[in-house]
Design goal:
This protein is α/β, with parallel strands linked by helices and 653 residues long. The chain contains 14 helices and 31 strands. An eight-stranded parallel beta barrel has the order 9-10-13-17-18-19-20-21. A hairpin with a 4-residue loop joins β15 and β16. It is elongated and about 90 Å long. The N and C termini lie far apart (72 Å). The N terminus and C terminus are likely disordered.
C-alpha cells in the first residue's frame, strides 16, 4: 500500500511559481534528477499530471510495470513526485499514467534530458553536470548584435555531411568537419534546424516529443555541449531553431498527457494545426508557459546557445492560420489574434533578455504583424530580429523572372527598401525555399548554365549589400543544383567541377568582404545606412545604391546589372568627387566571372546626374555586380594598396 505523502524536494515556492507561470528554471524541479536524500543516492522523478488518478514509474528494471513504483501526489498541485533510492543514471523510463477514465498508458518524460535513439521512445536518466566549459571568454565578449556583422549559415545537422554508408556523424565528429568549413567560408554564426528529440526524421525536427532532450541521433548531451564549445572557441556563434508553436501527436509525447488536453488547448479549433497534423500549445495555461520559457532558457543555460530562431510565429499569433471559415473561432474582441500567444511571446522575450541581454531572438513571422521587434513596453512582441519574408519573396520572385520580363517587375527590387526599417530584419534564403519542388537557388535562375551561376552570384551579392543581417541555407554557397534532399548529404562531389568550386570561392570572398566593410552592417537598422543612387532604371534592369557606415570613408557604391546585356558608358551620380576603385566584382575569373573587372579605377566627372553634383561613367558587364569605394589620399592610398589581395577583394583584417 502506498504510504502517505511526507516530504518532497519540490518546494512550496516551486509549486506556487509553476502555477503562476514564472518558474523559469522548472527543468531543475521537474524531470529526473540524480539526488541524495536522507543519506541515500538515487533519482527523484517529478511530473505534472493534474487529471491523473495515479502516476507510477515504469522502467527497464521493473519490466515496464509501474504497479509497485507509484509516485506521490503533492496535495492541491497536480504534481507527482518521488525519490527512488538506489536507482542510477542511465536507466530507461516512462511514466505509467492512469487517466481520469481509468485507462493506463505510458508517456515519455516532458522534461527528460535524454531519450532513446528512435524508433525507441523511452526517456533516459541523464545528468548534465559532467561537462567542463571553456567558452567563458566568448560569453564575456558578447555584445548587442545591431551594429555588428551577422552572417548565418543555416544547416540540417543530419544531411550536411554523412558517412559513406549514409549514417550520421556525431556531434563531436561534426565539430571537426563543420567548424573549419564555416571558418574558411567566413560566416559569423551557424543556425541548426531543430535538435530537440523527434520521432520522424523527415519532420526535420519541427515535430518534437522531447523538448529538453537533444536528439540522440548524433550522440549524448555532453557531445552537443562539446560541439557548441568548439564553435565558440573558433569564434562562431550557434543559433538553435526552436519550435514553441506546436508539437507532434505521437502517443508517447505531450498529446493528452494525463488523459486530458494538458499541454494543448482543449478546444480543437485552437489546438489543431490541420496542415501539419500537430497540436498547438495552450498559451493561456501558466504551467505551459513555465514549461516553454524554461525550455528556452535551458538551451541558453545548459548548452550555451547564442540565440533561438523561433519557428512558425505566425501560426501562433493567428487563430485563422491555414484554416477556413468555420475551422476557427474569433477571440473575445472579435479578432483573429491569439491574445494568449501574444502575451506568451512578450513574456518569453522579456524573460530571455532579463537573463541574457545579447541573445538573438529571431522570429520567423511571415505576415505583416506589426512591431515584432519593438520592445514589449511599447506594445511590441519583444524579439530583436525578424526574418524578412517580404524581401525574400519579392527577391526570389524577381530573380526567377525571365530576363525579358524583368523591366515590368522592377518594383520587386525597389519596394523592399520601403519597409526595410520597419523592423530589425534578417534577410533569409532558407531551407523552405529549396524544397518541395521550389528548386535550388541556382536552378531558379533563368538562362543557360553560365547565366544561372551569374544569377546566383547576383542574388547573393544583392543580399549581402542590402540592409539587414544575412542567412543562407547550406548548399547555396556552392550552387547545389538539385533542391535539398532531406535524407542524403549535400552534393559535395560538385566541387570537382569548376563552376561549383568557383561559386564556393565567390561566396567565401563575399562573406569576408562583408566582415571587412563596416558600411555593410554598422547602420543596418537606420535610414542613414542606405541611399538610392538610381532606383528607376527599370528599362535596363540596373540598380545603384550606397551603403554607408559611421565613417564617411567607409561608404560603398553598389551597382548591379540584372540583364545579360553589357551596359557600356553607364553614367551614375555620386555624392563625393574623387577616384573610385572597384573593390569587388562578380566578374572576377576566380569566381566564375568573365574577367571584365576594372583594375584602374574610375575618376568622377563634374557632370550632375541622379540628383548628385558628380558622376561616374562605368562599363557594366552582363549579369554583374560591382562594389566601389572612394580612394583615400595618395599617401594613404599607397598604404592601402599594399593590403589588397586582388583587385576585387581586400585582405582580412
Amino acid at each position: 500500500m502506498l504510504e502517505p505523502f511526507k516530504t518532497s524536494a519540490v518546494s512550496d515556492t516551486d509549486v506556487y511559481l509553476f502555477h503562476e507561470g514564472t518558474l523559469y528554471r522548472s527543468y531543475r524541479t521537474f524531470g529526473a534528477h540524480v539526488a541524495q536524500e536522507n543519506g541515500e543516492t538515487g533519482i527523484r522523478f517529478t511530473v505534472w499530471a493534474p487529471a491523473a488518478r495515479q502516476v507510477s514509474l515504469a522502467t527497464d528494471q521493473n519490466g515496464w510495470n509501474g504497479e509497485n513504483d507509484l509516485l506521490y501526489k503533492i496535495p492541491d498541485s497536480g504534481i507527482w513526485t518521488r525519490f527512488f533510492p538506489g536507482l542510477e543514471e542511465g536507466i530507461f523510463y516512462k511514466y505509467e499514467i492512469t487517466g481520469p477514465d481509468g485507462n493506463k498508458f505510458l508517456k515519455a518524460d516532458p522534461y527528460a534530458f535524454y531519450a532513446e535513439v528512435r524508433p525507441a521512445t523511452a526517456s533516459v536518466v541523464k545528468s548534465l553536470d559532467e561537462y567542463s566549459w571553456g567558452d567563458a571568454a566568448w560569453r564575456r565578449k558578447k555584445r548587442a548584435p545591431y551594429q555588428r556583422p551577422l552572417n548565418i549559415y543555416e544547416l540540417h545537422f543530419g544531411t550536411w555531411r554523412q558517412r559513406e554508408d549514409g549514417s550520421f556523424y556525431t556531434y563531436r565528429e561534426m565539430a571537426d568537419l563543420l567548424i573549419p568549413y564555416v571558418e574558411k567560408m567566413g560566416y559569423t554564426h551557424i543556425e541548426i534546424m531543430p535538435l530537440t528529440e523527434h520521432p520522424y526524421d523527415l519532420s526535420w525536427g519541427y515535430q518534437t516529443t522531447g523538448y529538453f532532450a537533444p536528439t540522440s541521433r548524433f550522440g549524448e548531451p555532453q557531445d552537443l555541449m562539446y560541439f557548441v564549445d568548439r564553435c565558440h572557441e573558433a569564434g562562431i556563434g550557434v543559433i538553435l531553431d526552436w519550435v514553441p508553436g506546436h508539437f507532434t501527436k505521437d502517443a508517447h509525447g505531450l498529446r493528452m498527457f494525463d488523459g486530458t488536453p494538458l499541454y494543448e488547448y482543449a478546444d480543437p479549433s485552437k489546438a489543431e494545426k490541420p496542415g501539419w497534423g500537430t497540436l498547438s500549445f495552450d498559451f493561456g495555461k501558466p504551467e505551459v508557459r513555465a514549461f516553454l520559457i524554461s525550455n528556452a532558457l535551458y538551451w541558453l543555460d545548459m548548452y550555451h546557445f547564442d540565440g533561438l530562431r523561433v519557428d512558425a510565429v505566425t501560426s501562433m499569433l493567428r487563430l485563422d492560420f491555414e484554416k477556413s471559415e468555420g475551422q476557427y473561432k474569433r477571440n473575445e474582441q472579435g479578432g483573429i489574434e491569439n491574445l494568449e500567444a501574444v502575451s506568451f511571446l512578450q513574456q518569453l522575450n522579456e524573460t530571455v533578455f532579463l537573463y541574457y541581454p545579447h541573445t538573438l531572438m529571431m522570429a520567423e513571422e511571415s505576415s505583416a504583424w506589426p512591431m515584432v521587434t519593438s520592445p514589449v513596453h511599447e506594445g511590441g512582441l519583444g524579439f530583436n530580429y525578424k526574418w524578412n519574408m517580404g524581401w525574400m519573396n519579392d527577391t526570389l520572385a524577381y530573380v526567377e523572372t525571365p530576363f525579358w520580363e524583368r523591366p515590368a517587375r522592377h518594383h520587386l527590387l525597389t519596394f523592399p527598401i520601403c519597409y526595410a526599417y520597419s523592423e530589425n530584419f534578417a534577410l533569409p534564403l532558407s531551407h523552405d525555399e529549396v524544397v518541395h519542388g521550389k528548386k535550388s537557388l541556382v536552378d531558379k535562375m533563368p538562362g543557360g548554365y553560365e547565366e544561372k551561376f551569374a544569377g546566383l552570384r547576383l542574388l547573393l551579392g544583392y543580399q549581402m549589400t542590402s540592409p539587414g543581417k544575412k542567412l543562407l541555407f547550406m548548399g547555396g554557397e556552392f550552387g547545389q543544383f538539385i533542391e535539398w534532399r532531406d535524407q542524403g548529404e549535400l552534393d559535395w562531389f560538385l566541387l570537382e567541377y569548376e563552376s561549383h568550386r568557383k561559386m564556393q570561392e565567390y561566396t567565401a570572398a563575399l562573406n569576408h568582404l562583408y566582415l571587412q566593410e563596416p558600411a555593410l552592417w554598422e547602420l543596418d537598422h537606420t535610414f542613414e545606412g542606405y541611399q538610392w543612387i538610381n532606383a528607376d532604371d527599370a528599362d535596363q534592369s540596373v540598380i545603384c545604391y550606397l551603403r554607408i557606415g559611421k565613417k564617411v570613408k567607409d561608404t560603398l557604391l553598389v551597382v548591379i546589372n540584372f540583364q545579360p546585356v553589357e551596359r557600356n558608358n553607364y553614367r551614375l551620380g555620386i555624392p563625393r568627387a574623387g577616384t573610385y576603385e572597384e573593390i569587388f566584382s562578380t566578374e572576377n575569373l576566380n569566381y566564375g566571372g568573365s574577367g571584365k573587372v576594372n583594375k584602374k579605377g574610375a575618376k568622377s566627372e563634374k557632370t550632375p546626374w541622379h540628383n548628385q553634383k558628380q558622376s561616374l561613367v562605368l562599363n557594366l558587364p552582363p549579369l554583374s555586380m560591382s562594389i566601389w569605394k572612394k580612394t583615400a589620399t595618395a599617401a594613404a592610398g599607397s598604404k592601402t594598396a599594399k593590403t589588397k589581395s586582388t583587385p576585387q577583394g581586400r585582405k582580412k583584417k
